[in-house]
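> forwarded from #structure-qc
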């Protein structure tokens, strides 16, 4: 009787000794992986960094940063009112907080809020879990000071986060081919070239500096035929390459559905001649033709194309515009073009993963997903590891200012390391392989795909 009674007690004691040990070793593995991730010089596949001067700000503070952050859409979603960041010159921080503080607090649970505060904490050496009225006052003082010497501040944060380069999409100035190569690598957005096909004859005049160069280069001063227009598109792609572009970008889901039907050259030729008097479906057909044509050029010039899929930033748009499966025909028709699919296709993360599994030319980019939903990023990264070889997984930030990019990288690292540490603890992966995967996702895969 005595012996039987002591058995459960002994077992409990042994378990109590083992379980904390297990947890401790899991934490240790996670910390070692984070330490490794911090040592990787990151090649960030996607950013929209803006200089505060270009945004027209005389002064920056917490509210100007918020205005250009993703958190702004949760603030609006909570019921807050959009404000013009230039108002900060006329309204006190106190008044701003009185009017907006509640809506900011309602968003304290979201990944947008959490990665934003994470970036602020890292860059400013803080350990806040919530923004408060007093905290924002102190922070705004620091932000204003740092932004007075923005170039130095940007460099400090960039180095602290251990970025090597950011692939930049200057969507606000589509045909701007100039970037600061110390920090950025050019990605050429093709949206405008696709959209402009229909009214091309009206859009491109000799006032456009690129069109002027095209006239000198080709001797063609009018875009009368589809061939003239395609020659111009080709000229722009070559100009971008001369300026160091390593890839193309399509974010057309913000304006239309990403299904691109196969339109014949003969049909496109007639439509171009009829433009700009085209019905909406005819305009779409002409755009579809031009995009297919660009995809062929992308293969010829070895320029991978990044495509926005899934959820759309901001408040109010057509969610299903960017459903990843709509791209399926492109992967079949253009096997030599390399596609870098963005954002985990959220909320269609399963579709996104399946496409990466099916096609050797389809790469899966976690860009922005950890900031949209960290939980979904954890599930998706784990599912991708089940389905897709790790040389096809990439990471990017997708932010307008440096503090938010730093917070995004931290979230990205946490997602990678949490999933990988769990796999190690279950005996499914060695620590050595986990470290290889981290280096691949944060650096090597982008280096190889974009030939950097
Ligand atoms: Zn973007």
């Amino acid at each position: 009787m005595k012996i039987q009674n002591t058995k459960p007690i002994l077992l409990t004691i042994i378990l109590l000794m083992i379980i904390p040990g297990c947890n401790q070793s899991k934490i240790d593995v996670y910390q070692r992986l984070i330490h490794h991730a911090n040592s990787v010089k990151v090649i960030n596949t996607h950013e929209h960094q803006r200089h505060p001067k270009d945004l027209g700000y005389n002064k920056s503070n917490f509210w100007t940063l918020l205005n250009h952050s993703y958190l702004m859409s949760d603030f609006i979603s909570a019921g807050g009112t959009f404000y013009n960041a230039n108002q900060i010159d006329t309204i006190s921080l106190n008044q701003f907080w009185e009017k907006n503080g509640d809506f900011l607090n309602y968003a304290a649970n979201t990944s947008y809020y959490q990665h934003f505060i994470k970036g602020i904490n890292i860059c400013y050496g803080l350990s806040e879990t919530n923004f408060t009225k007093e905290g924002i006052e102190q922070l705004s003082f620091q932000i204003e000071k740092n932004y007075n010497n923005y170039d130095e501040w940007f460099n400090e944060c960039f180095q602290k986060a251990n970025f090597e380069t950011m692939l930049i999409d200057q969507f606000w100035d589509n045909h701007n081919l100039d970037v600061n190569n110390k920090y950025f690598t050019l990605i050429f957005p093709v949206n405008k070239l696709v959209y402009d096909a229909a009214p091309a004859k009206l859009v491109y005049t000799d006032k456009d500096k690129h069109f002027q160069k095209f006239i000198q280069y080709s001797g063609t001063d009018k875009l009368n035929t589809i061939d003239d227009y395609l020659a111009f598109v080709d000229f722009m792609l070559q100009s971008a390459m001369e300026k160091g572009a390593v890839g193309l970008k399509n974010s057309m889901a913000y304006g239309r559905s990403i299904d691109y039907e196969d339109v014949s050259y003969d049909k496109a030729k007639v439509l171009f001649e009829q433009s700009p008097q085209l019905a909406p479906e005819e305009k779409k057909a002409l755009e579809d033709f031009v995009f297919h044509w660009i995809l062929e050029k992308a293969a010829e010039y070895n320029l991978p194309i990044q495509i926005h899929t899934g959820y759309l930033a901001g408040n109010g748009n057509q969610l299903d515009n960017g459903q990843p499966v709509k791209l399926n025909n492109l992967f079949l028709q253009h096997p030599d073009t390399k596609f870098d699919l963005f954002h985990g296709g959220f909320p269609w993360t399963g579709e996104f993963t399946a496409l990466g599994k099916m096609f050797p030319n389809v790469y899966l980019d976690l860009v922005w997903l950890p900031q949209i939903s960290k939980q979904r990023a954890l599930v998706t990264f784990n599912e991708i590891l089940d389905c897709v070889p790790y040389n096809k997984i990439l990471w990017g930030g997708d932010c307008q200012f440096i503090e938010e990019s730093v917070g995004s990288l931290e979230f990205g690292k946490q997602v990678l390391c949490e999933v990988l540490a769990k796999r190690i603890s279950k005996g499914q992966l060695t620590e050595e392989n986990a470290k290889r995967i981290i280096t691949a996702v944060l650096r090597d895969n982008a280096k190889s795909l974009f030939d950097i």
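QC bot note: Residues 60-152 form one domain. The longest helix spans residues 2-39.
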